[in-house]
Every structure is written in structure tokens, then in C-alpha cells.
Write a structure and sequence with these properties.
Layout lengths: L1 H15 L7 H4 L4 H11 L21 H13 L4 H17 L1 H11 L2 H13 L1 H9 L4 H17 L7 H16 L7 H14 L5 H26 L9 H6 L20 H10 L1 H18 L1 H17 L11 H24 L5 H10 L2 H5 L11 H19 L1
Helix pairs in contact: 1-5, 1-8, 3-4, 4-5, 5-8, 5-9, 6-7, 6-9, 7-20, 9-10, 9-11, 10-12, 14-15, 17-20
Length: 400
Amino acid sequence: MVVIALGLRLGYILVAHTYRLKTVEDNFDFGWEMGRIGRALAQGEGFSNPFMGDTGPTAWEPPLYPFLIAGVFKMFGIYSRASALVLLTINSVFSALTCIPIFLIGKRCFNEKVAVWTAWTWVLLPSVIFWCTRWVWETSLAALLLAVIFWLTLVMEDADDLKPWLGFGLLWGVAALTNPSLLSFLPASGLWAWWRRARLGRRSVGRVVLAAVMFFACIAPWLVRNYRTFGQPIFVRSNFGAELRMGNGPGANGMWMEYLHPTKNVAQMQQYGEMGEMAYVTERRREAMAFIRRDYSRFAVLCLKRFVFYWGGLPHSPDASRLAPVANSLYLASSLLAFWGLGRAIRKRRPGAWLLFWLVLCYPLVYYVVFPHPRYRHPIEPELGALMVYVISEVEKKKQ
């Protein structure tokens, strides 16, 4: 499965020439903010300049993927097609390797048939192939990390050796430095592992502490860097206030108000440059919170809209493709199937059913507060896919 998945992805990259990324706006579409930071690192300017021009040090993005981009830029050229090909290939490797934890999760929670078909779905599904072959971003790596963490959480109840616990803390540290949004699942993951062992009468406190120490050891150098650079504590990345404002304010409709982004708005870019990143983000957060406090009921409606858009797909403009409604219908249908599968798994007391519940509940919460995007669902697609295949297999059983 891994080999076929990688072959399909590489074949698509070469046939569709997806490595020929747009060169407009000084190659900004090549990794967007992460690409800009990667360029700065490759040029010896440090972790800085996420937008246009020389704006100084940044914590706008987490560090791991920009450093990966920088390494590729160093070897194959800044914004070159060779670098694009290498980075999309690396993303495809991440996506292909995700078949392994998908199979293990499906087998542990359901059965081998569900495991096999869920993994094959991941191999072949165009919506999965899209993100790793067209986006120079951490999306595919985040899906791989979360799937491995989910599987490891499931088997921690049998882990008396210390190595799995060290790996557990290490993986969560790497996840935090890749995409801090994944951390919304950390409390549920850790408590699940502890609770399952407690039910079996196995001691876990020391192991949990060891995993926590490993986690903080992984992220501590970056937290120290942020404090020394900006003179204040910053947990991994700095931009939450700006993201909150781009989803909440005058004109908010539940979607991303991209026209407020510094790369889309000259006034915002000028303000970012003049104020500096920390002051700019603080001001954007103040504006968003003032909007929320003025009308909590409106904010609640916006959150409800974002919930619908997250699971049902974003509304399309009138001039969008005729296939857009079909795509949204499939997107909504996949969510409903996953919810159905989750409910059935809980009723049938399948192993890990409640862990799946906490993942589906916790992970998207931040996007209900800021704004949704189809990419934001991708990190939990492996688990959603298992739930979809499971409920379909259960329907097939009834027909037989």
C-alpha cells in the first residue's frame, strides 16, 4: 500500500506538473508564510520575514516545516522547481507512510477488513492526494503524526516498558513544533492512556511524568528562543490573535476574511511592519475580543456557522465550478458517515471508540472559533476514514 500510494502521488506530481508553482508575488504561493521563512533561513537571515520585505524575527508559524523548506532550499535552490519537486515528494512520502498507522488503528478498533479498506481508501482518494501533491505545507506531516499518536495512545495500556512513553512524549513534541492545533487532542490522549492502565491496575504516574518531561524537552528550545527574541512568553507560534480577528469582526460571516491578512491588505502590512509582530497580533486580538464581547449571541451564531462549514464544506461563490455543489455534498456525506460510524462504534463498545469521540470533539474546536478550511480537516481524515469504512461494512453485514 505504501509503495503504491507513493507511486500514485509521484506520478501525479510529474504528469500534472504540480511542481510548477505560481511565481506571482515573488513566489509567495511557494509555501506562503512558511516558504518566506524558509527563504530567510536559507539566506542566513534567521527565522524571520514571513511576508513581504524585511520585517524581522517572527513566530508566526511553528518552526519544523520552515526549517525543512530551508534545508531543501539550501540544497536545490530557493523557490526553484527542483525544490518544489523535492518538497512535494517529501509530502507524498509522509502521506504514503500514513497508510501504516491507518491500518493499525483500523485493526485495533474494528477488524482487519476495515483496516485494509481504510488504508486502500487513503491510497486512492483524490482529496487525500491533493494536499500532498499541490501544497508546500505541513498538512500531510500533521496527518501522519496524529495518526501515529492515535495508534500509540491505543496501545499504551499494554506498554510497561519506558520506551513507548518516551516515544509518546517525543511525538507530541514534534507535533507541537509542526502544528500546535494538534495539541487540542493532547489532554484527551494522555488521560485516555492513564485511565486505560488504571482500569487494569497498572501504575502510570511515573510514565506519564516521563512522557511530559520528554514533551517539554522537545519544545523548550523553541520557547526559550521566542522569549529571548520577543521578551515575552510565546507558546510555539504567535499569530492566534490575528487569526481570531480574521474570523471575528465587522463583516464576519463564518469564513476567513482573507482581505484582512497582511499579504492581502496594504494597510495591514504597513501596520504589521510599523508595530512589530507582537504588538500587531495583540492589537488584532483586542479588536476581535471587543467584537465578541459586544454581542455574544452573534459570536455563537458565527461559531455554529463555522461548525457547519467545517463538516459540510465552505459556501461557494456564484461563479464557482458547477461541480462545487457536488464536492460539498460529498464532503457533507463523508462527515455524516463518520458521525454515524462513531455513534455505532460507541454503541457497540468498539475498542478506542471513545478515544475517536474525543478526537472528533476536541481537534476542530479552535476552528469553530476562528474560521474553517478544508485543509483543517485533513489531519483527522485517517480516523474519520476508519469510521466511514466501519459503518459501511456494518451495513453490508446486515444485507448478507
